[in-house]
Amino acid sequence: MQEYDEHAEAIILVKASPQFGKNHGETVCCAGVSLDGHWLRLYPVTFRTLDQASQFGRWDRIRFKCRKPQNDQRPESRRVDHQSIEVIGKLKQSERQNFLARLEVTSINAVKEKGGSLALLRPRNPVFSIERKDDAEVEEERARNKAFAAQPDMFTAAAAIIPYEPCPFRFKYRYDTDDGTREGTCQDWETDATFFRWSKHYGEDVALQNMRRVFGDEYPQ
Question: By the 8 A CB rule, do 85 and 50 touch?
Answer without folding.
Answer: yes
